[in-house]
TrEMBL record:
It catalyses: Thiol-dependent hydrolysis of ester, thioester, amide, peptide and isopeptide bonds formed by the C-terminal Gly of ubiquitin (a 76-residue protein attached to proteins as an intracellular targeting signal). The keyword Hydrolase applies. One of its GO terms (molecular function) is cysteine-type deubiquitinase activity. It is an enzyme of class 3 (hydrolase). Belongs to the MINDY deubiquitinase family. FAM188 subfamily. The keyword Hydrolase applies. Its EC number is 3.4.19.12. The gene is Mindy4b_0. One of its GO terms (biological process) is protein K48-linked deubiquitination. Pfam families: MINDY-3_4_CD. Keywords: Hydrolase, Protease, Thiol protease, Ubl conjugation pathway. This is Ubiquitin carboxyl-terminal hydrolase MINDY. Hydrolase that can remove 'Lys-48'-linked conjugated ubiquitin from proteins.
């Protein structure tokens, strides 16, 4: 029999497979599971266990930002214009969200 904790997690957890690499994306705020108002600005953490990752990545997700204003400041031909796989996966749940890596070099 499956434990109720496995059927209904107490904290948000997603297992990710992006470009054949696996990782865990998780949050420490249980309100993300039950209160849509907490989905304004929140924090998620990502760990892949890959050699290039030395610590858990701390991501800030902003679902109400004006991502088109940020795009105007970027070089349209620059390397930042290309979306990262993990960010695209996050946007399947929160379309149009702005994702900050908080000083960590994006590695996934």
């Amino acid at each position: 029999q499956v434990s109720p904790g496995l059927r209904t997690p107490r904290l948000p957890v997603w297992l990710c497979s992006v470009s054949g690499r696996h990782g865990v994306l998780f949050g420490i705020d249980s309100r993300l599971l039950s209160d849509w108002k907490s989905e304004r600005i929140f924090h998620l953490y990502f760990y892949s266990g890959q050699q290039e990752q030395t610590q858990t990545a701390h991501l800030t997700i902003d679902t109400h930002s004006h991502h088109w204003e940020e795009a105007q400041r970027e070089d349209p031909c620059g390397p930042q214009k290309r979306h990262r796989g993990l960010e695209m996966a996050i946007r399947t749940k929160w379309a149009g969200a702005t994702i900050s890596w908080n000083g960590t070099d994006p590695f996934f």
